[in-house]
Amino acid sequence: MAHRIQFASGESFAFAPDEDTLLRGALRAGLGFPNDCGVGGCGNCRFELVSGEIETLWAEAPGLSERERKRGRRLACQSKPAGDCVVKVRLDDECRPEIVASRLPARLTAMREIAPGMAEFVFRTEAPARFLPGQFAVMQPPGVAGARAYSMSNLPNDGGEWRFVVRRMAGGKGSNAMFDALKVGDALTIDAPYGRAHWRSGNSHDVVCVAGGSGIGPIASIVLAALRDGGQRRIHVFEGARTQADLCFRKLVSTETERLVYAPALSAEPEKSVWAGARGFIHAHVEAHAFPVEATEFYFAGPPPMVEAMNDLLVMRWRAPLGHIHTDKFF
Ligand SMILES: Cc1cc2nc3c(=O)[nH]c(=O)nc-3n(C[C@H](O)[C@H](O)[C@H](O)COP(=O)(O)OP(=O)(O)OC[C@H]3O[C@@H](n4cnc5c(N)ncnc54)[C@H](O)[C@@H]3O)c2cc1C
């Protein structure tokens, strides 16, 4: 039987028996439940339980501090209602999904290594692949506790093709399971789309994209969309990697046009190598360029230190309008 979830602000929805979490149930009901990562890292879906019973899926999720936990705060992405509940959270129209997520049976149709420890996974679903470029899917790597988020690296399409760039993390359970436990032909459920760091087509601003590591996946999707419907906008792509072998952008987007300026920077390329491009961290390289922030949209994705450095640059130093900043931190 479905449970009735009542918000202190008045809205309510039915949490069906096959729903997984309060957050995804609310988003699937079309509600603007605040969220960013959907997998326990960011803490943006924290809420207060006024009454009712909730099962906590991952009690140690880093998105909540010990202090918040003691004060009774919970994460909606790690909460599964066990009966009717009343919850307190400020719903936000900005978080209302443009495309409501669904769980789609998928099959892995191909996997190719594009850099050491980095591979492109291609899945196919019967239903069309509906998402906004830059969004992510939640999936359950085989044999691992908890879901992982992976961002689509291709464009939405009617053929049901979903591409993801996944990096094998040293000691990481989910990413290693993707590489080692999944074979071409295997089934997996894709729960998508989620995320707000997606391509905005409704203006004529230039585009600056910054990717670190596997952040190149959603950035490739955004660049493909900007090439497709970005008019005459210039598209600057900054890719940060350790060495030349780790660069992936050109394996994902092969289009050559004057509108697209590609600027990689390497942080661990051997001193003696024949690399004529930039060295150092990618955010420092971005800083060396002067972009008119009022007429530029910034998209960036990748490891938390890179995302924090970019936020610091854009918000604190360049004072870019917050509405021009679209980012996903890969917790
Ligand atoms: C919005 C978003 C988009 C992302 N896109 C990509 C991408 O395109 N490519 C890519 O390579 N990576 C991406 N990531 C990172 C990816 O989701 C994983 O964090 C990464 O693969 C490392 O996972 P792991 O299992 O190997 O490492 P682990 O250290 O084992 O786990 C890391 C993450 O898994 C989750 N987790 C761990 N244990 C549990 C548990 N018991 N219950 C529930 N959750 C748990 C947490 O979110 C944790 O931060 C993205 C992350 C986010 C938030």
Short account of what is shown:
The chain is of the alpha/beta class and 331 residues long. It is built from seven helices and 19 strands.
Q: H/E element string?
A: EEHEEHEEEEEEEEHEEHEHEEHEHE
Q: What overall geometry do the principal axes of the alpha carbons give? A: globular
Q: Give the N-to-C terminal Cα separation.
A: 34 Å
Q: How many independent structural domains?
A: 3
> What fraction, in percent, of the residue positions are helical?
10-25%
Q: Which architecture of the largest domain per CATH?
A: 3-Layer(aba) Sandwich
* DSSP E strands, number: 19
What proportion of the residues form beta strands (DSSP E)? 25-35%
Number of helices: 7
Major β-sheet annotation: 6 strands, antiparallel
Q: Could you report the average pLDDT, rounded to the nearest whole number?
A: 95
Largest sheet: spatial strand order:
11-10-13-8-9-12
